[in-house]
Predict the structure.
Amino acid sequence: MIHVPTAPWVHLVFDLLAWASGLGLGVVLYRWRLRGMTAAIAAKVGGGYFVALTAGAGIGAWLAGSLNTLRGDDPALSHSVAGALAGAIIGVEAYKAVRGIKGSTGGVFVGSFTLGVVIGRWGCFFAGLADQTYGIPTALPWAVDLGDGIGRHPVQLYESAAMAWFLLVYLLALWQRAAWATSRAFYVMCAWYGIQRFGWEFLKPYPPLLGPFNVFHLLCLGLAAYGSRFAFNDWRRPRDRALSVPGPDNQPV
């Protein structure tokens, strides 16, 4: 068992690092590959898009997190990155439906969101038991003691590693100018995030909501279904669903 020093305030440090790193990567990817796509989306969506995105993310984050923690042994309000993602999607898709906007508009956020999760989950890990994202007990050699003397799955690091793998695949695809990386990367990211986190949720002591499934199981099934459906639709009809505006790399965006 590995003993890990923890402190709740560390979470804020990693949150700030995640936000800064995500923003920095977003700028780099914009200048490197996504300038054309970003310009096309900005011209199409209008300022209300970001209002819908921000409002949806905020409501979703606190609603999903609190639905989970208020049902536990120590009820408290909380927020969740999975809820923020789902809420942002609902807000943006509703806005797009009202405005009649077609095609993916989230590609510019893929790198930033993914890196934010990769770094942010380390903050959850070092925040310890107070963060309420710890894993269930295990006797595996890499079990971690977060301060209560119980060996647990480092489930936060499992998720960080899974999203780091996706980020590497995504960056390689951008480097190779793969079509999916500019036309449907957001959908692929949602599908992967939902699938991998659905699995890790079985290693958390969250209260079940429906059978063996907790709040995040159901939320992640929704994210996986959403991402898979639209990624598949874009794969079948890329010219119909992608924003077809010539970019500097001559890729449909």
Remarks:
- The mean pLDDT is 92.
- The chain has one domain: 2-241.
